[in-house]
Amino acid sequence: MTLNEVPLRTPVQIDDIVGDRPFRRRLMELGFLPGVSLQVLGIAPFGDPMDLEIRGCRFSLRKAEAACISVRHLQVHEAAAK
Question: What is the set of domains in the chain, with CATH numbers?
């Protein structure tokens, strides 16, 4: 599943980031690293951008960029631990 498909307030964990090297590097500099949990807090009225919370910070990310981030659902006990 990719980040642009995640329902609101569902905790997920980043598995992989695809795309060109500068794009991947910039996301990783911002804290989007494999293994990190995040959740979608909101989506703009026309569907773009998405409001995300990762490591206690809020980010806005375009849906096209979110489609480059592979994620998996976290179990309830995993989400509570992070």
Answer: 3-81 (2.30.30.90)
